[in-house]
């Protein structure tokens, strides 16, 4: 087990697997998270989460300073139910420099854990669907969390 550390990213959990969402300010991280939550994802954190390695897996938890709050542009900070912990299955970066296609996911090391790292073009009207497909196709498999 490692000491928890703060990481600048949002995180949602889909079918037991966490998706870290990174990108520059204004890239659409919170909008993507909100669209995924609307489709049934759970909310872990917005803009900052706590990461910790437990039994070889990277776990994302809500940051204590922003727990249960999501910034929705134009509305401000909105209370949101949270998921207390999610095993991270992959890192999703939003960038206009995203490749058109990949043959395999590059690997990103976070907290001594290797994770698939997908970069998607943020301006897609179906970005939430692409994120779900990326999780299905490239995400690490789920495993139940120990209580």
Automatic annotation (TrEMBL):
CDD domains from the UniProt entry: HprK_C
Gene3D superfamilies (alphabetical): P-loop containing nucleotide triphosphate hydrolases
Keyword Lyase annotated: no
UniProt keyword annotations, A-Z: Kinase, Transferase
GO biological process assignments: regulation of carbohydrate metabolic process
One Pfam match: Hpr_kinase_C
GO molecular function, one term: ATP binding
SUPFAM superfamilies registered for this protein in UniProt: PEP carboxykinase-like
Residue ranges occupied by any HPr kinase/phosphorylase C-terminal domain in the UniProt entry: 9-78
Protein known as: Serine kinase
Source organism (scientific name): Novosphingobium umbonatum
């Amino acid at each position: 087990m490692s000491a928890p550390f703060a990481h600048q990213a949002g995180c949602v959990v889909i079918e037991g697997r966490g998706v870290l969402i990174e990108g520059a300010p204004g890239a659409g991280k919170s909008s993507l998270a909100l669209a995924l939550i609307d489709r049934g994802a759970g909310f872990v954190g917005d803009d900052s989460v706590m990461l910790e390695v437990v039994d070889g897996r990277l776990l994302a938890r809500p940051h204590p300073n922003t727990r249960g709050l999501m910034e929705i542009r134009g509305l401000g900070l909105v209370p949101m139910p949270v998921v207390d912990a999610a095993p991270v299955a992959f890192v999703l970066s939003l960038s206009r420099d995203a490749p058109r296609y990949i043959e395999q996911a590059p690997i990103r090391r976070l907290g001594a854990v290797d994770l698939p790292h997908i970069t998607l073009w943020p301006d897609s009207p179906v970005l939430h669907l692409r994120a779900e497909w990326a999780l299905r196709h490239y995400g690490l498999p789920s495993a139940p969390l120990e209580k």
